[in-house]
Write a structure and sequence with these properties.
single chain; 9 helices; disordered C terminus
Length: about 140
């Protein structure tokens, strides 16, 4: 049994990712996350890639690895300026998505802890893009 099985399979994971990004797109906590995604491929792309990554991360099919050749979450985000506040805001949106989708129990508590560890690992000192633009002008 995998963590993906614990949350109800790919269909339930898809619902979770959609709910998460709906929250990112509407909650005040998602504002900087939206800005960061806009600098990349955008939220619609992130919806697809988040599902692809989480499927493999949770023990299901490794769609992300099949497509990109790795599952290195730090490498994926190495170019993105991620602050402590961004990690906390991502976690707030994911916590709410888990709640909104009715996920509860010890396996979800463990998943929340894993998400927290991963989110905090991504915090870095990459220069903010807005600051870079000011230097250019």
């Amino acid at each position: 049994m995998t963590a993906l099985d614990d949350i109800g399979g790919e269909g339930r994971l898809h619902d979770l990712v959609e709910t998460f990004y709906d929250l990112v797109e509407t909650l005040p906590e998602g504002s900087n996350l939206r800005r960061l995604h806009a600098r990349g491929h955008g939220v619609p792309h992130a919806r697809v890639e988040q599902f692809n990554f989480l499927s493999g991360f949770l023990g299901g099919r490794s769609y992300y690895k099949e497509k990109h050749g790795h599952m290195d979450v730090k490498l994926m985000h190495a170019h993105v300026p991620i602050r402590q506040e961004d990690a906390e805001n991502w976690l707030t949106c994911m916590q709410r998505a888990l709640d909104d989708e009715g996920h509860a129990g010890p396996h979800i508590d463990k998943l929340r802890q894993v998400f927290r560890r991963v989110a905090l690992i991504l915090v870095n000192d990459v220069a903010d893009w807005e600051s870079d633009m000011e230097k250019i002008e």
